[in-house]
Amino acid sequence: MIAPSTIGELTSAIRGKQASVSEMLDIYLSRISKYDSGIGAYLNVASQSAKSEAKQLQARISRGEWPGPLTGVPIAVKDNISVAGLPLTAGSRILESFVPIYTATAVSRLRAAGAIVIGKTNLDEFAMGSSNEYSAFSVVHNPYDSRYVPGGSSGGSAASLAAGLALGALGSDTGGSVRQPGAFCGLVALKPSYGAISRSGLIAFASSLDQIGPMAHTGLDCARLYAAMRGCDSQDATSRTDLPPVDIKALQHSKTNLIIGIDEAAVSTWCGSDMTGSFTDLLSRFTHLGASFKQINLPDSDTELATYHILADAEASSNLARYDGLQYGPRCSDARELEELCRRTRGELFGPEVKRRILLGTYVLSGGYYDAYYQRAVETRSRIQAAYEEIFDQVDLILTPTTGEAAFALGEKRDDPVAMYQSDRWTIAANLTGFPAITFPIGFSKLGLPLGAQLEGPIGSEETLLSWVHRFDENQPPPGPSLAEAPEGR
Amino acid sequence: MAVSPEQIKQLCQLARLSLSQTEIARLEGDLGRILIFVDKLIPIDTALSKSTASNVPVQSLRSDKPAPPDEAASLSSALANAASVDDGYFLIPPVLRKGGAEELPASDELPSHRPPEGRE
User: Fold this and answer.
1) pLDDT of B115 above 70
2) ipTM here
3) Beta strand extents in A46-179 (DSSP E only)
4) DSSP state of A202
5) Which residues in chain B have their CB less than 8 angstroms from residue A303's CB?
6) Residue-level pLDDT at B119
7) Average pLDDT, chain A
8) Which chain A residue is nearest to residue B77, measuring alpha carbons?
9) Does the annotation count A278 as an active-site position?
10) Contact between A72 and A226 (Cβ < 8 Å)
11) Is A153 a residue of the active site?
């Protein structure tokens, strides 16, 4: 049996007894051993625990139970999300030996719906990056072409899914980290409204921006994952009680005559020719589906990027203060004093991008600079939020490219942090405002790399976003990559 | 805006981060370029803006009660990830040194769980 291409196909095969849960899992585990050495998506394949989860699910099915809508679906979990008993590194040497003692709420809810955690995926260290090249352990290759990045920071999750090494994946999105790799790997990926999915068990990077988000092959699959995870959680004080659920059955019967805002001037300024061409085609495809368009002026994206980096790095410098070698993780071996132990542990075990961000965050929060940078960024965020609220008074959704171009080459931006930061131009607004946003595949570049577009909506509009993507893709994933077996490793 | 090596050392002090000379030289360039990039905010008039450090107010607080023993983390699991523990405590190097510039109380005045001399 070949790996199913959608969650519906997999669950129907299990329900129809064409395959047991364990047999289905084995298909994915064997694909991982065959292909992942050439991709590098996984930091840790959880074969043992996954097999045991599969047996338990099968036992329930044998007793006549149906565990849930995600029964047997193998999920790749970004390695900054806790699963009790499985090592968690956050892509950093400072957590190299860390094994969490509790499971993230999002993962527990997926398991409660029948999903299986198949492994933990590679990421930029502490989710800080847009190419996965800032992982302390290894780079990840784009399954469509191994010379290109898979995007970041959830690059391992995106690559695992695109290569058929899982059927759903979790990422975290602080400035575009599920959407940009989703776009680079031809996937649907949702950054939900801030507070829609519990962040309990997610390693904090920038708490006012971080959200866990699902990645899938189609809009319907993404909706299934989101529906299983969403909802208030007493373990996360920022999880919201007032957001509407998503009705999977209603996705097919959604409102069609939407008014969608587009900023053509921004598209022509910031996109390459591949994206501009595909985006123009997309508008006519959307028109056929019943959308009408209205010109809007998005806020200046350079201002958004500056605001984002000040806030994200300020919050990161505070959140990462906890990694001091005292309570968890390795520590430098021969420090004579406490202060020296903390400084040297952090200096020896954090990577260069994390150090840059901690220092910039410390700078913008320090005496003499706080008002000029941090306070101003906080105020500018409010202006940006107000600008988007005004736009959503005139349109139902906003449509933009997810990225200005397809995936860039490995090494192309690694040593130029500012160029790397600018690759998040289209995605950070949803984090600054807290609005939900979804990327979906719209075609391929001339080099055969996937291109993605993004729909953004007001708080709580997930059902509209997911239903529109479902109408567009009709639950048909785009053509997947042809993979090479790479027995000699990357 | 340029950042001097002295400023980077001061930031390292605040952030408890030890860096090599090579790293400091590299960061001087990187931080300078990043600050030029974020300096775009300086001319923006924010006088009429409200201030929001968070996207949403606190929504759902759990009750402030200890979990029942069978649901709470055990002492051993809470300590399991530490590099060095002894008798239910995290072990760390001395915080202050006898005879140093910041001399501490004599050892008999220290809390009884202080690790023995020389142990980490």
Assistant:
1) no
2) 0.88
3) 74-78, 116-121, 168-173
4) B
5) 40-41, 44
6) 35
7) 95
8) A101
9) no
10) no
11) yes
